Amino acid sequence: MYFCEFCGAQLGEGQVCSCRSYGGGYESPVYNRPAGDPKGKMMIFISGIILTVFGSIGIITALVGIAGSFVYMEMGYPFYILSGIMSLINAGISLAFGIFGTMNAKRQEKGSVIAGMGMTLLGMQILGVIINLAVNIPLFDVLFDIPGAIIGFVIGVFIGLIFGCALPVLYIIGGNMNRNSR
């Protein structure tokens, strides 16, 4: 089975695609893709593996963070325990979603579910950044005494937000590609 490289339409042997993206009516390049193989399979599979690895590392890190947060709770910073619990939940969901995506990357009917999982991960990442800011606001009076600390903190939050949103966005795109490749 052959598919148009630009629009993904199924073509027969020697058939010409009439998609507009290649000028319409001209012979578009075709590639041989196995029948039923969804377009977003590799994007979901690779993202799922990365989510699984970092989710398992995140669970270990969150447990260590929760244990260490009891020290800060005695100092009057109770939000660190909330941040650790949120990290543990986020890592557990990332691990579960990564395993689900890796196992179901080839299934077109799971495209909508995987895109929804990506939206959930994206929302949790944004919520995690908000909680991170809320937890560290009491430390701003200490950070003002250190030159460049506030700028470094803000840059770190934005870099974390950008890299933290990359995998969920790939999950959403891959899920939509799988859903639309029927």
- Give the rounded overall mean pLDDT: 79
- Low-pLDDT residue intervals, each spanning 5 or more residues: 22-28
Helix/strand/pairing class, anyone? mainly alpha
Overall number of structural domains: 2
Report the end-to-end length measured between terminal Cα atoms. 14 Å
Strand order of the largest sheet: 2-1-3
Strand content bin: under 5%
Number of helices: 5
Task: Provide key terms for this protein.
182 residues, mainly alpha, 2 domains, 3-stranded antiparallel beta sheet, 66% helix
Describe this structure in words.
It is a single chain. The two termini are 14 Å apart. Helix 1 (41-74) runs antiparallel to helix 2 (79-103). The longest helix is centred in the N-terminal third of the chain and has 34 residues, at 41-74. The protein is elongated. Strand 1 (2-4) and strand 2 form a beta hairpin. The chain has 182 residues and is mainly α. The chain folds into two domains: 2-32, no CATH class; 41-180. The model is unreliable at 22-28 (pLDDT under 50). Helices cover 66% and strands 4% of the residues. A three-stranded antiparallel sheet has the order 2-1-3, with no helix packed on it. It is built from five helices and three strands.
